[in-house]
Amino acid sequence: MTLTYEDRCVITDLIAMHGHLCDSGELDRFDEVFTADVIYDVTDFGQEILIGVAACADAGRALGELNPVGHHVTNIVLSEQADGRVHARSKGIGINADGTSGSVTYEDTIVRGDQGWRISHRKMLARRVPLGG
């Protein structure tokens, strides 16, 4: 499979949409970004792996006021896989209500299904030290 320019644009928008949905509190729309059975790995933050869009939305609601007020994604790099999946690596910047910020790396597996491109697996890695630690 060869990713078209249109595929790349749609996937980039998909990755960016996650932050918009979080920041606006539209967590019930996560099915527009993730597969129904998404695996969302937040173990690097001491949390359990989340499975499914409902678990992801529930986790966001449970975080409540501790959620960042701004999720920003940048440096998106897409790599085609032989099996038709796409690996995406991107950087996330979270801005907190008190003005502090944090940085993460997103490692995503993206698949094309009946609903179009969706993230089926996301691993979130905290950036805690410079130069990869």
TrEMBL record:
Pfam family, one: SnoaL_4
Cited InterPro entries: NTF2-like_dom_sf, SnoaL-like
Every SnoaL-like domain range: 6-123
Name recorded for this polypeptide: SnoaL-like domain-containing protein
Origin species: Nonomuraea glycinis
